[in-house]
Amino acid sequence: MKLPLYIAKRYLFAKKSRNAINVISSISVAGVTVGTMALIIVLSVFNGLETLVRSIFNTFDPDLKITAAEGKTFIPAQASLSMLSSVNGVACYSLCVEENALLRYGDRQFVATIKGVDENYSRVTGVDSSMWDGEFTLMSDQGRPFAVPGIGIANYLGMRINFITPLNIYVPKRTGKVDLDPENAFIRNYIFPSGIFQVEQEFDSKYVFVPIGFARELLEYESEVTSLEIKFEAGAKEADVQKEVTNIFNDGYIVQNKYEQQEIFYKVMRSERLAIFLILTLILIVASFSIIGSLTMLIIEKERDIGILRSLGADNTLIRKIFIFEGWLISIIGAIAGIVLGFLICWIQQKYGIVSLQSDSLIVKAYPVEMKIRDFIVVPLTVLLIGFWAAWYPVRFLTIKYLKND
Fold first, then answer.
1. pTM above 0.85, yes or no
2. What's the distance, CA 91 to chain centroid?
């Protein structure tokens, strides 16, 4: 094994009689380097974007969410809630009521989603840590209700927490008869904001949090809820807790974890990641054709050397290994250089954020990058596999002409 590798290194780094071989070899190394670097950078950016999106969703999405399998609302049985509290791994839960409503603030109107939540909601999610102004307070000590809208809604309506104008909320009556007067078709109530949250544009322009009692009064509900949201204890096993909660609420309910709540989004992101990986791998395959060209010309140039090696007792396997090792060395050098350059570029982006995002709606200003060991294993293996094929093909078919008794 040492002799073929030694000769392959001499062939690779020694000056060739034909300058074109040197040029093609350099192009081969450069092509593998750029392809490897691109794979490392793109996969790291996808990792960063996925982590960023997860952090955004974690602000609103609970660890488990229970909804009705049929219909919009349900009344949770007290026995089921008691059993839920005793499940090992469940820290707390929150009752929620969600419905679309018309908001009016002064002369401006906006259609949004009011979400009535109880006092445990800030423990179930992290929305209280995303306040742009004020505090996440839904009920005063005197029992006065407050609202917490997103900054997108607040900006559109011109709302701030220190203004004295109330926020009017209109919801269609559930049991009302048809009336020509639009005022009689809606239930209206007003509330003052105590804070404004900011997470991401989609959420900031959609939700207004209010006390669950206030929401039920608007919607003419008594004990109904639209969802039951659960927070896990630290170190809890998600699959085990979800299975136990599903057994408690039986078949009439849907119990979703964080992935299932945003299943379509995560599937699309993973599909995009796989598609990009395959496209860049295809580019690497195309770039590897230069390795085939380089080895083809080298085999032709070293015809005399092949004859000398055979006269010295070298068999066909040893001679083939020499050229296969040379092609593989090109891939190895390119892969190492690409990994180092990819790591440096990702590290610079992580530390200094040179490439910025052209959006004011996100909580980060630069492209997020997260390097994972998995990518630094999969990418080199892919490059070396392609490099081995690119070396094996010309050696297998082109050396037949020069190797007798094959």
1. no
2. 26
